[in-house]
Amino acid sequence: MYTKEQTKDLQALTNRLPKNAGTIDELRNVLRFHEYRYYILNDPLVSDAEYDSLYKTLEKLEKENPSLITSDSPTQRVGNSLNKEFITVPHLVPMLSLENSYNSQDLIDWDKRIKGLVNTRHIIYSAEPKFDGASISLIYENNMLKRGATRGDGSAGDDITVNIKQIGSVPLSAKFSDYGIELIEIRGEVLMTKENFRQYNKSLAEEGLAPLANPRNAAAGSLRMKDPGAVRKRKLEAILYHISYIKLNEKSISKNKSLLTTHAGSLQMLAELGFKTPVNEKKVLPDIEQVINFCKEFETKRDELPYEIDGMVIKVNEVELQQQTGSTTHHPRWAIAYKFKARQATSILRSVEFQVGRTGSITPVAKIEPVHIGGVTVSSISLFNADVIEEKDLRIGDSVIVERAGDVIPYIVKPLAELRTGKEKKIIFPSNCPVCDDPLVKPEGEAVWRCVNINCEAQVVERIIHFVSKDAMDIKSMGEANVRKFYSLGLLKNIPGIYSLNYEEISSLEGFGQKSIDNLRNAIESSKNQSLHRLIFGLGIRYVGEATAKTLGKSVENIFELQHFSIEQLQQLKDIGSKVGESIYEFFHNDDNIKMLTILAAIGLNTKGDKVEDKIGKLSGQTFLFTGTLPTLKRNEAEKLAEDNGGKLLSSVSSNLDYLVTGDSAGSKLDKAKKIKSIKIINEQEFLNMIQT
């Protein structure tokens, strides 16, 4: 979309804008450029903070000059919450389904039918991934995004324009007029990548909420949410793969209209205009045999893709031939889906166990007849909460359909009610904690039942496991198995007890030789020096994830200062809302928690925060980023050295980065850094030389 010269000019303008506010048009152009780099190319040239600064500047200018606001300004992505039901709108062309094929013979038969319809022996095909998301239809008129809609019943769908604007990979405007296009309808799929899905589910778990079942459901559910801000948080992507309608302005002088004569050409045009398309994944093939080979090859690497696919879509490449073949009332004749082997299986629901988490949440876990799906054997499946059991009408003894999509956790799709014999039993959700027998409570507005007995053994064990975990205090030799073993033997009762283990008794246990004991002792001692944010995260405060823990660690000189923060003061910190603020306040106003922290401090754990002035040193004024495996230093050791000598750390490659310090398997950060001339790429020894000289 942007030439090398345009990229250079826009990056130069980016560097100038912080010193000079610039015009509204300049700010818009720069922000659109960086949206394209981030959402389409996945290759940002500025940090999130830099982008946010430019965005806020534009917001301020537009607020001062409301008459200059345009509908395609980056600030106009954010909409107001919907307070009415979605309006149904007609598609310009019906959104039909696809005919499915499941093997090579199905494709060969389809190829013969197509050739018979167009009376030719030679047809060129285009094959591309079949994305597993939610279908959308976009209409652009006079270069501006006019409307976004769901598939609906195929003839009409819900108007979700406000939510579509929250998806950064959907341009609010595009220069279709350069191709002589006045009005266009484009079809595509809204997706959540596997990584974004994992991160989003992780954030839900930290809040004690049930995770989403799979990326497809996450994407589909997002499109009809009433709060556009919540849609934006899900970090959705849109991949556009078909032009269903075009109205040309015959009077205009356009470039390369020939692109519109083929499906592959139309994808190229959309990519040139700044849309995310399968232009790099698709392949144009001369015959059905090569199509079959390409589909089989793609199936073997489906798990390597960042998003879920469930097959391939094969299309007649020539648009004129597409029009000749036409459509049925159900599907276009010129396209077919080649479905990959199903990642579903049927099993029997044998029982349900109720597990207690570290925050007291009760999670029902289905125990099924072991079944092989997607390369793994599945025997346990989370049912999330009581509402899921009721909504799916699950019963002990049911035959159930189990699905596992890629790297995603397995889940029960539905019971096969028609196979019931009458012997199935209703699942009874407990009214008391299955571990301590205290009554369960269901907080208002939540779907999760909880045990509120803080001394419940199950919660104590889970809190200890969380405390020693990698992202918390990182006590490597402890681990879940050892925590459970030590607790069951009475060697460990609570978090402070980690630091007073009886190593003599442990040495008598099977598998604990002197080396194991030394490793365990050293790991526990080393954890005393962890940064405060790791301790805060390790405490397992409800709703407090790693990011919030870092925010808290940087806000105090000592953890005990958090006792004196009001809920209002906590809410003034980055990304802390009322719910999170209340949880933090309650934790630090609980006498038992303060007593535990006092014991940990007396034992020698670091309770000092990161609220310190920038250090002055040999690296002052320089920014650093470390990537790959360094020869002698661990990543955190190298970063600490940089900060101790006055350097500042960046989290991503951008024009603000001065030095990228590389090791083995440096990966994409090195590739990105090579594209920015101002970044100096050095190795570990060169970095150390900067400190020692």
SSE diagram, text form:
Blueprint: H1 4-16, H2 24-40, H3 48-64, E1 88-90, E2 99-101, H4 104-118, E3 125-131, E4 134-141, E5 144-150, E6 156-158, H5 161-164, E7 181-191, H6 194-206, H7 215-223, H8 228-233, E8 237-248, H9 263-272, E9 283-285, H10 288-300, E10 309-316, H11 319-325, E11 335-339, E12 344-356, E13 362-373, E14 376-382, H12 386-392, E15 395-396, E16 399-403, E17 411-415, E18 425-426, E19 440-441, E20 450-451, H13 457-468, H14 479-488, H15 503-506, H16 514-527, H17 532-538, H18 546-553, H19 567-571, H20 578-588, H21 591-603, E21 623-627, H22 635-644, E22 648-649, E23 659-662, H23 668-674, E24 680-683, H24 684-692
Cofactor: Mg(2+); Mn(2+)
EC number: 6.5.1.2
Catalytic activity: NAD(+) + (deoxyribonucleotide)n-3'-hydroxyl + 5'-phospho-(deoxyribonucleotide)m = (deoxyribonucleotide)n+m + AMP + beta-nicotinamide D-nucleotide
Q: Work out the radius of gyration.
A: 29 Å
Strand runs, count: 24
Q: Could you give me the name of the CATH homologous superfamily of the largest domain?
A: DNA ligase/mRNA capping enzyme
- Summing up helix and strand content along with how strands pair, one would put the structural category as alpha+beta
Our count of helices gives 24
The order of strands across the largest sheet is: 2-11-10-3-9
Arithmetic mean of pLDDT:
87
Low-confidence stretches: none
Question: How many structural domains does the protein architecture include?
Answer: 5
Strand portion: 15-25%
InterPro entries: BRCT_dom (IPR001357), BRCT_dom_sf (IPR036420), DisA/LigA_HHH (IPR041663), DNA_ligase (IPR001679), DNAligase_adenylation (IPR013839), DNAligase_N (IPR013840), Hlx-hairpin-Hlx_DNA-bd_motif (IPR003583), NA-bd_OB-fold (IPR012340)
Family: Belongs to the NAD-dependent DNA ligase family. LigA subfamily.
GO cellular component, one term: cytosol
Organism: Ginsengibacter hankyongi
